Amino acid sequence: MSSSSSNWSAAQSSSYRIPRQRMVERLRDHYRIRDARVLEAMAEVPRHLFVPEALQGRSYGDHALPIDANQTISQPYIVARMTELLEADKSSRVLEIGAGSGYQTAVLARVAGQVYAIERIGDLARQAQARIRSLGIYNATVKCFDGTMGWSAHAPYDGILVAAGGPRVPDPLLAQLKVGGRLVLPVGESRESQRLVRVIRTEEGFQHEEHGACAFVPLIGRHGWNES
Fold it and tell me: Residue 79 belongs to a domain with what CATH number?
C-alpha cells in the first residue's frame, strides 16, 4: 500500500467514521446526490480535520461552520452539489477559487485529475496546503492570490468552482474555461445571498443555468466585491 493510501486509511479508521457515513447517506437519500464518485470522495475525506478542533464534533452536521479569518467551511450538501455539477473525472483539470480550509480542494482532488486552488488569505492558503499534503494528496496545489483573476498559467480548465459569492461572473474565469467546460459559482446582487449558477462554455458562447438559492462569504477581488 502506498503512503498516500495509508494516510487515507488512517483517516478512515478515526472515531468519526460513523458520522461521516451518516453524512454521505443524507447526501444520497435526502439531497439526492447521484454521482457515485462524489459520494465516495465525501466518504473518504476526513472533514473533521478541516475545522477548528473545538468544532470537530459538529463537522459532519448539515451546516456550514466557521473557520479562521471570518471564513467558513461550506455545508456538506453544497460541497457535494457543486462538485457534482462540475462533472469532473480523472482526466479533468480543475480550478478552485476560495480554498478556505482546503476541504473542497481535497474532495475535488478525489474526483479530478489535477486541482489548482487559490485562496486570497495567506494564512488559510498555507494551512490548506499543509493539510492536504498531510493527507497524502499530491494532485492539488494551493496558492495565495486574487482568485477573481483565475490562474492563467494552467488554463484552459475543464471545470472551475468558486466557493464565494460575487456580484457577477468574473470575465477572467470565463476566458480560462475550456470549450465544453463547466464553471460553478454563487452569484448575487447582495453580499448576503446568491443563486448557484453553472456556466457551460460552448462553441457558440456561454450557456447559463440556475441551481437554487445559496449563501456564501463574499468573493473579494478585482472582479468581485471590494474589501470594505
Answer: 3.40.50.150
The per-residue pLDDT for range 108-128, each reduced to its tens digit, is: 999 999 999 999 999 999 999
Specify whether 3 is catalytic.
Answer: no
Structural domain for 186, as ranges = 64-214
Helix, strand, coil tally for the chain in percent (to 5): 40, 25, 35
Q: How far apart are CA 97 and CA 163, in angstroms?
A: 6
Residue tagged active-site, from 6, 13, 74, 193: 74
pLDDT of residue 83 exceeding 80, the answer is yes
User: Is 39 among the domain residues?
Assistant: no
| Per-residue confidence (pLDDT) for residue 5, from 0 to 100 | 47
Looking at the domain assignment, is residue 58 inside a domain? Answer: no
pTM over 0.90: yes
